Amino acid sequence: MTRVLITNDDGIESPGLHRLALAAHQGGFDVVVAAPARDSSGASAAVSAVAQDGRIVVEERHLPGVDGVPAYAVTGTPALAALIATRGAFGDPPDVVLSGINRGANAGPAVLHSGTVGAALTGATYGCHGLAVSLDLADGDLTDDDRHWDTAAAYAVSLLPLLADLPHSTVLNLNVPDLPAGKVRGLCRARFGRFGQVQMRIAERGTGFVRTALEDTGARLEPGTDMALLADGYATVTPLQPLGEADVELPELPEPVNAARSAPAA
């Protein structure tokens, strides 16, 4: 039976994680949950933790409505939870790191900063398959109880059997519209769009502080990209791979300035 570690970056109390764990458990997978004790959004693949006497603090939890699934709150980042899981911290190492369901889409190159995606990439770096799943919160006025977490969970679980046939270390980045399953127009492979339709700017600088704000860039959505397809009501999937050496040729390397040189032979 495929063993699945479920983690996220919104914290172990998030409803998206609970619905994902339930869907994977009901799908017949061997599920264990290990997620940050508190929100770790934007953590990317950082592996920091709170330690006491050199021990990473881990607390057993019970997830409401997900009976029979062991769960652990980790006082660290989602990537750390994935990393120590591959080393047997929560029982047998997982075959798959399933990360999410994130509040908000993780699209375009902004996935670089996502703790949800960072956990899946970390798992892939250490021998697991990886799937990151996010729910696109187009309507910002809804509460968590009104979100369609089950739609995203169903798409994620349907993709799990495909992972074994993908090249080693491949991670799938899944984004799902916040819609009932019957209203999603389908699942499409998508390429990355630009860095996102919302960008950070410096709103104020003062003595000892900087204040940031988000603003709409007004950029046109590019057809075929994750952002454009999500806006049209499609779920999107984009294959990723962990950071690796670039296959490029470098020009002749310069000598360091003022570098000490060996004295010429007498």
UniProtKB/TrEMBL annotation:
Keywords assigned by UniProt, alphabetized: Cytoplasm, Hydrolase, Metal-binding, Nucleotide-binding
A cellular-component GO term for this protein: cytoplasm
Cofactor: binding details: Binds 1 divalent metal cation per subunit.
All residue ranges annotated as the Survival protein SurE-like phosphatase/nucleotidase domain in the record: 4-194
Cofactor(s) the record lists: a divalent metal cation
Enzyme Commission numbers on file: 3.1.3.5
Organism superkingdom: Bacteria
UniProt enzyme class: hydrolase
Cleaved signal peptide residues: none
SUPFAM superfamilies: SurE-like
Reactions the enzyme catalyzes: a ribonucleoside 5'-phosphate + H2O = a ribonucleoside + phosphate
Gene Ontology molecular function: any one: exopolyphosphatase activity
Main location: cytoplasm
The keyword Zinc is assigned to this record: no
Cellular compartment(s): Cytoplasm
Recorded family membership: Belongs to the SurE nucleotidase family.
Purpose: Nucleotidase that shows phosphatase activity on nucleoside 5'-monophosphates.
PANTHER family attached to this UniProt entry: 5'-NUCLEOTIDASE SURE, 5'_3'-NUCLEOTIDASE SURE
Protein name, UniProt field: 5'-nucleotidase SurE
Natural source organism: Catellatospora bangladeshensis
